[in-house]
Amino acid sequence: MTREEFTPIFQELSEAYGERLPLKQATISVWYKVLRDLPADCLEGAALEYMSGPSPYPPTPGQIRSIAMQQAGVTDSKTINTADVDQLMGDFQRLYADYWQTGVYDRISWERLINEFEHTDRVNMAEYVMQKYETVKVDAMERGE
Predict the structure, then answer these.
(1) What is the pTM for the complete model shown?
(2) If both were cysteines, with which of 59, 129, 136, 141 could 63 make a disulfide (CB 3.0 to 4.6 Å apart)?
(3) Tens digit of pLDDT for each residue in 26-77?
């Protein structure tokens, strides 16, 4: 993420916590140094989740990193690649909708999709897709496919 992408997100946090998280250049620099490897949309999601929580205290950069990685379902920020996951989610949504609209069960496409999710280190998404696949598979068997 660029500093230009980071700064407005940090400004939102600073606005939410006021004097407890001052909008100073030195503070921005430290936070950016810690969080710059995260995609901006992941950082924004983590910041919003923290601000929506019950704590009246500002977060630390480490807390925001932890939330971002938890939301992304990864243990290493280098594996966060939102473009790949967005593409896979689009593939999943099309495959799932196609089955319920047309009744065509494509086992190979489902298994490929699950495998690709597992390789993005998005275990939670792979599990979700696997659950939907199981639902489709059971329905297809009941239909005799």
Answers:
(1) 0.54
(2) 59
(3) 999 999 999 988 888 889 989 999 999 899 999 999 999 999 888 877 666 6
Number of domains into which the chain is organized: 2
Q: Do 33 and 101 belong together in one domain?
A: no
Please write the tens of the pLDDT for every residue from 122-138. Answer: 667 778 888 889 999 99
Range of the domain at 129: 82-143
| Concatenated DSSP letters of the chain | --HHHHHHHHHHHHHHHGGGS---HHHHHHHHHHHTTS-HHHHHHHHHHHHHSS--SPPPHHHHHHHHHHHHT-SSGGG--HHHHHHHHHHHHHHHHHHHHH----HHHHHHHHHHHHHTT-HHHHHHHHHHHHHHHHHHHHHT-
